[in-house]
Amino acid sequence: MKHYIRVLAVCYLYMLPIQAQHQVTKDDYKRAVSFMYDNYNNKTAFNLNTSVNWFEDGSGFWFVDYSKDNKTYKTVDLKKGKVKALFDHDKLAKALTKLNGKEVKSNDLSLSDFENLKGKLSFKTNNKTVIVDLKSYKLEEKKANKEKEENPFEAESPDGKWVAYTKDYNLFIKSVKTKEEYQLSIDGDKGYEYASWYGWYDKMEGENGERPKRFYVNWSEDSKWIATTLVDTRTAEKMYLLDHSIDSLYKPKLMAYYRGSPGDSTMVKITPVFYNIETKKEVKTNLPTGTHINAVSANWMKDSGALIASYSKRGFLKQYVKLVNLNTNTEQVLIEETSNTGIDNFEYRILEDKQKIIFLSERTGWRQLHILDINTGQIKLLTSGDYYINSIKYIDEENGIIYYLASGKIPENNPYHQQLYKVDFKGNETLLTPDDKHHSVSFSEDGSYFVDASSTITIPTKTVLRASKTGALITELTSADVSQAEAIGWMPPSPFSLMAKDGKTTIYGALWKPTHFNSNTSYPNIDATYTGPHTQRFPKSFNRGFDNQSLAELGFIVVQIDGLGTSGRSKEFHDHSYKNMENNLEDHVLAIKHLSEKYSWIDINKVGIFGHSAGGYDTGRALLGFPDFYKVGVASSADHDFRMEKAWWPEMYQGWPVDETYEKVSNITNAEKLKGKLLLTHGGIDDNVNPSATFKLAEALIKADKDFDLLILPSQRHGYRGKHRRYFIKKRWNYFVEHLLGAEPLWDFKWN
After folding, report:
1. Disulfide-capable partner of 197 in 216, 427, 433, 585 (CB 3.0 to 4.6 Å)?
2. Which of 499, 500, 482 lies closest to 491 in space, CA to CA?
3. CA–CA gap between residue 605 and residue 625 (Å, rounded)
4. Would the CA dihedral through 70, 71, 76, 81 be positive or negative?
């Protein structure tokens, strides 16, 4: 009887998925490297994404068609609707060989910036502009334009009669004819500067460093008015960086920049200012002084002295578009957006000849097109339904037609796949790309044509030219070819869906497997995260199919998930993250559990996570907020405490004024909850997400006596480049290999 039980037990064990053989080889790393973007894009996978470049003269466009042995520059004869070579590659290669004094191969030309010159082409190569005669293939090197360069600190009026400039922080104008100058502002001073602008990345070097000089004025079309801004930095606080990476210095270089944090009142203040050129006087308005995250923007109308101004209130719960008349000193509210949660998807276009404003708003619960009559103030809904308009792509103002990309309009389609539609001012809509694929489009300047790249994560990209009026196919340009990648076992990631935490909404994700996948093996799972509410992660198009393949090759299942709270769905869907970003990963946990129940080869006990920036916050949050689920994480360049971040992003999604929720969602205040393995990385001179929060989290982890790892890349900003990027990727790969897979990582492997 005991023998019988023993046999059953042995049989049962053989039926279970076996644990991964905790060994990673050089061949595994070699495959991982082969799936890095620079190693596969148009080398083993071709035409995943075709860039089209429209000629400035409107005669057409050029593009490059890639294949295993060729790189062919092409164009389209728009009259005949036929693709043809842009030039004779053999003849041009011979001519360039003669010009450069070294061999240039016809199948590997490196050329850019083509322009059509009627029987000739101009292009750039080796930092030179060259003109080729398409009959003789004679080359002419275009000499640099020796015309006098424009002074970036002055602006001539459209009628050529005036020049605006600054002196001693005040705005002046000067008559071109008489040279007589007039001072328009009088109280400018250092830190209180007229006709200036705030630069997001403006640096001040050293202890008493100066902000870079900036100049900005906006002349009205009739040259009778100037709009500009007054920039006040007198009470603005700075963020600081120390650059330890400069070889010639033996002390760190101090750098500072103005960047307010959530809740700060000590921020750069920006006031809109307007001047009447005839009277040489300022015209006061009721437009508010804002901060550098919600300053007023102003656009002149053709009617003299009239302008459209737009701004948001601090906290992004109100957005205004106003018509201002400087002649009568009056203003009219045209659009007032209000919301109980952050407004971040508002966009508008002025159609002055039609006296209309087209705007995108979520006031109905979905991002839809609205049309405003400027004269009457009447607003009409142009589109409606439970779907999301992603963007306006082209407006044919003369005929009153708007072309836009929308997703989720066709219920049976994937809600992230966008199609192209057109709608007239009466609300009559036409679908121009009627298949269940994701479409990216580029319009000709006159709107007659558009290039359409369509695909899904599992269907290869096809790029074609279509007629805008009907969407009719004119000709095919390129098709993606991944046969070489498929020959070594690559398959596109598998999309999946499940019910979200609210019990009623379907959410989506995708899953990557290694090319040597074995369904009888149990694989650790890694969550490639970024739950920033302004983005979405579901890979909609075929060119995203390689994104996580490198990491998968080392023996992992990798997933990307869009849970509740991300962008591109309903306002209700989006608002799940408002003041609640600590819980953005709840749907990720649900999704990974769902997949582990569906697939026996996913090891639910070995879950890792990585992310950059807001994804780095996610990673820290995963290890601290879900410590029994996520076991290993790599958090790079993260905003671990929103109170230390740039103001606009947290105030938009976590709210303003700063309240107790900021403390609650902070990774720093939750440091004592760490159980797993956590690698923190940051660029030493990151001027987007200041590294201070990473250092502060490290300090909190030390005080809590937690074991963690820290990597600072002293010379890097928010994005890591070159050798530093490779070093970081190697560290991230090996962190998961060692701590999640339980294998011995390799360090010395080749990158190509």
Report:
1. 216
2. 482
3. 17
4. positive
